[in-house]
Amino acid sequence: xxxxxxxxxxxxxxxxxxxxxxxxxxxxxxxxxxxxxxxxxxxxxxxxxxxxxxxxxxxxxxxxxxxxxxxxxxxxxxxxxxxxxxxxxxxxxxxxxxxxxxxxxxxxxxxxxxxxxxxxxxxxxxxxxxxxxxxxxxxxxxxxxxxxxxxxxxxxxxxxxxxxxxxxxxxxxxxxxxxxxxxxxxxxxxxxxxxx
Length: 196
Hints:
Blueprint: H1 2-15, H2 17-28, H3 33-64, H4 69-90, H5 104-113, H6 116-129, H7 131-150, H8 152-195
Helix pairs in contact: 1-6, 1-7, 2-7, 2-8, 3-5, 3-6, 3-7, 4-6, 4-8, 6-7
């Protein structure tokens, strides 16, 4: 159970459902309620399939191109650090014009829910905690994000614009700290390997 929570927390931060909530609201404000439910189902399926496929294929892909987990930890840590710092400095997640028919898959499912932060974090965690626990943690976090979006109206009213921004900043700060930890672990692993 402890391993699940150790795996769950970094992914929860990486998904950042509350931080993405304002973007979801902006994209779906003109979408009818029955269509919004279809968008959410499409988002859940797309985000889950992409995350699990990447989780299963990612480590083998790294082996194939002779990239070690330490290399990936440093690269992934740098990527997470850039994402978190961008969110902290600009205060806005990137938005783009979307098609109402496919918005559930792109951009809500990927990359807003299963984005670079989630994919990078999941590959790093699967090496430490295994496929089963990491898969459960990924799917649980995606389900939580969909639940937050399902109750988007009440949640947004409860938090308010300022509350959503504050929680997003806190989540980005935690993501930056996790990124530094990954870089540190990667560097230590490489140094240890060379000392041997």
